[in-house]
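Consider this:
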Amino acid sequence: MGMNQHLIAELKNEAASTRKMLERVPLDKADWKPHDKSMTLGRLATHVAELPTWVGITINTDELDLGKNTNTPTKVTTNEELVALHDKNVNDAVAALESASDEHMKKSWKLLHNGHTIFEMPKAAVVRSFSLSHLYHHRGQLSVYLRLNDVPVPGMYGPSADDKN
């Protein structure tokens, strides 16, 4: 089994948990944030739905310069739009991974900011850490945002305190 197949299996499994979380985001509170330095609830939820795109960026490019990035966050107004954005991005990430051989996954990839290298790693490591672990980190933040807004948190690795026994 190739490296890509392991990453695809993980992504698909985790996407189901992410989807459950996004379905519950109270977008009527999109501007809420727990602290002045925090992202808003709406921005965090959209970021979680968009993070799978970083898999394709990693597979299909050799570097990304954040200082030259002109990407603007997607605007969503409903949970259906948020979940559809997530589903599309997961499907695109899976397609990118399906096309990646082990040899390709060993190639170097760089994250830059205005030409300054932040890090350089093999593409497989970037997908695992920069894309997937980054996604799980922000999904965890989103679960706290839900809890602080009295929204039942779905179980991800077993039942949550809100799941019925």
Notes: The longest strand covers residues 116-122. The mean pLDDT is 95. The CA atoms of residues 61 and 109 lie 8 Å apart.
